[in-house]
Amino acid sequence: MLIVGAATALLTSLLWALAATLYRGAAVEVKDPLATNWLRAPLALVLMATLSWSLGELNELLAVLQGGWRLAWILLATTLAIILGDTFYLMALRDAGVSIGYPVGYTYPLYASIFAVALLGERVTLGLAIGLPFALAGIWTSSFNPPRGLSDRKAIFKGVLAAVAAGLCWGLGSVVYRVAVITASPVNVNLVKLLYLMMATSPFAWRGRLRVGRRALLLALLGGLMGLGAGDWLFYVSLSMIGVARTVTLTTFSPLASLLFARLLLHEEASSRQALGASMIVAGVCMAIWL
Fold it and tell me: Which of these ranges, 16-20, 146-150, 222-226, 249-253, has the smallest mean pLDDT?
C-alpha cells in the first residue's frame, strides 16, 4: 500500500509539472487567466465523469449535488484553491514563467500547515518553525535576478506576488479539501469541483472579445486533463492511501520537474540560482512536514 501510494504521489507531481508547462503556453496567448481557467476544465470533466460512472459512484454524486455540507465544503475549497488560487497561478505563469512561478507557488504545503494550526488546532512542530523561513528564503533565491528572455522585471515581480497569493489560496483550500474528501469520494469531489469551475468562469470564457487560437486551446485542454483531471484525482487517491504528510512531501518534487520541463519544452532559461531556490523550497517543505 505504501509503495503504491508513494508511486501515485510521484506520478501526481509529474503530471502537475507537465500541466504547468502546458498552462504557460496557453496563459501567454490567452491574456485573461479566468478564461484560461475555464478552458482547462472540459477534458478533465469528461475524464472524471467517466471514472465516476465506471466506478459506480454516480449515485453518490447525485446525493452530493442535492446540497448540504458535503457540497458546501467542496464549493468553498474550490473557490479558494481553484477559482482564486489557480487564477493567481496562471497570472504568475504568464508574467514570471514556469521556472519562477511554479516553485514560488509551491510553498503552499507550508501555508496549509499554518492554516491547519490556526483553524484545526494542530500543534506547531519544530519542522514548521524551521521549514517556513527556509522555504521563504528559497522564494527570494528563485525570484531574485531572474533570467533574461522571460519578460521585464516589473512583470516578473507581479508574477512572484501572484505566485505567493496562489500558494496562500492553495494552502487554505487544502485544509478545506481535507474535510471535503472525508465526506465524499475523491473522484466525485474532483467532478463537482470541475462542474463548479466551469459554471463560475464561463462568463469570462464566452466574452465576445476573447480570441483563442488552436494552439492555446489545445495546450489548455491537455494541461487541464493532466493537472485538474488526472493529477488532482491521483492526489486525492494518494491521500487516502498514505496520508497527507507523505503525499504532500512527495508532490513537492514537482517544482524541480517543472524546471526541467520548462527548459526542454519551452526553452526557458533556468539559472543555477533558480534551481537552488527550488531545492530550498522543497527542503523547507520536507522539514516542515517530517521534523
Answer: 146-150
Digit-coded pLDDT (tens) for 10-44: 899 889 888 877 877 776 666 677 777 788 899 99
**Cβ–Cβ under 8 Å, residues 39 and 221:** yes
| pLDDT given at position 30 | 67
Euclidean distance between CA atoms 117 and 113, whole angstroms:
6
Global pTM value: 0.79
List all residues 6 or more positions away from 96 whose beta carbon is below 8 Å from its beta carbon: 104, 143, 146, 150, 151, 155, 156, 158, 159, 160, 162, 163
